[in-house]
Amino acid sequence: MLKRSFELLIVFAAAPLLLALLAGTAIGTLLFLGRPLFFRQARPGLHGRIFHIYKFRTMTNERNEKGELLPDADRVTRFGSFLRSSSLDELPSLINVLKGDLALVGPRPLLPEYLPLYSPEQARRHLIRPGLTGWAQVNGRNSLRWDDKLAMDVWYVNNRSIGLDAKILWLTLLKVLRREGISQEGHATMSPFRGPGS
């Protein structure tokens, strides 16, 4: 309850700035990518329960001659890359924070198809609500190996506190300003998770 109150206090205190950024990013997305503005995707939350996360769209819907979507790296536009590197594409996820699907800080929600691939230890990341940012995001983000990233998620589950959350939020701001760890070499974000040892 204390963590939830702390998060809502931060969101409401920053509301004027966040609303201005949301409006500006929405206009930019409309101009450079058109409609739809938002990208909606299923993600596992607390205890693996599925919810839908919202982001600004960063990719086109270009397809090959077979009607299949092109690889992510081929569909991310220059404006989309800017949104990703600045983390502005994540702003609509604040809706998920207000709804209670997401925390501000916690293990990042990954893809549902990864659920059966986690080791029992890695699966402990789902014992708490996922977050917009987390310990792994301020310690390498997408430049980390999967095993290292998931180990950091579990470390956070074991050591979480309001003080640690405040530290992570501050470090996240610094990382965003420096645009560090945005993608793994050769990938739009990072390679798919294949199970322990990835």
What does this protein structure show overall?
- Helix content is 40%, strand content 10%.
- It is an alpha+beta fold.
- The chain has one domain (2-178).
- A two-stranded antiparallel ribbon has the order 1-2. A two-stranded parallel sheet has the order 3-4.
- The protein is globular, with a radius of gyration of 17 Å.
- 27% of the residues are buried.
- The model has no long low-confidence stretch (mean pLDDT 90).
Gap from first CA to last CA: 35 Å
Outline: globular
Spell the H/E element sequence: HHEEHHHEEHH
Number of domains: 1
Summary tags:
198 residues; alpha+beta; two-stranded antiparallel ribbon; two-stranded parallel ribbon; 7 helices; 10% strand; globular
Structural topology:
Layout: H1 2-13, H2 15-32, E1 38-44, E2 50-56, H3 72-75, H4 78-86, H5 94-99, E3 103-105, E4 131-133, H6 146-159, H7 162-178
Parallel strand pairs: 3-4
Antiparallel strand pairs: 1-2
Task: Put the structure in a nutshell.
This protein is of the alpha+beta class and 198 residues long.
